[in-house]
What does this fold into?
Amino acid sequence: MKERFYRLVLIAGLSTLLSAAASTDAPADYGTCIACHGAQGEGNSSLGGPALAGQSADYLVRQLTNFQSGLRGTAPDDTRGNQMVAIAALLNDDSKQQIAEYLASLPRVKPIATLNGDIAAGRGVYNSNCSDCHGAQGEGNSALSAPRLAGLGDQYLFDQFKKFQRKQRGYAPADKRGRQMQFMSDVITDDASLTNVVTYIQTLTGTPQ
It folds into this structure.
């Protein structure tokens, strides 16, 4: 499984080499991220890499640090998380900050929707349970360390929510914010409702109104 993943990473990396070279503002160490997250932070759904363009720099640094320290990505059966642990281990503090600031500066790219839930039903669940932390337009809340959700693909959002439910995220006692989200994941009890929510998130602008 890991060998196949790294082959795909190599192929994707070669195919994006020219576009990456054109991105003169990208820090050198971002080259290790391009295959999965795109030269412009647009993500790569075929490798499960989320779009990171426009995400909070503080949030990105924290997640990279969590991967390095074992607070994320080391749960059983979290294959993609484990792969990210290996990548994060290559970065020092300066590299993490430079990569995070670069990604935060990029314009958000609207993902292609792949799930077809009930938007109206998803709106109700989102506004009742998610908007206080993640914002009415999915813009995130730096004061609460809540990440931006607008711009993240629906399948990635679905998969990460399921990881919280399966205790593959938020499992470490020191990951207080992850544990809070793990607790909140219990409010959505079925996949249909979760599909509705992530479908609704695809309609959000990421800009507070």
User: Anything to note?
Assistant: The chain has two domains: 2-105, 119-201. Residues 8-22 have pLDDT under 50 and may be disordered. The first helix runs from residue 2 to 15.
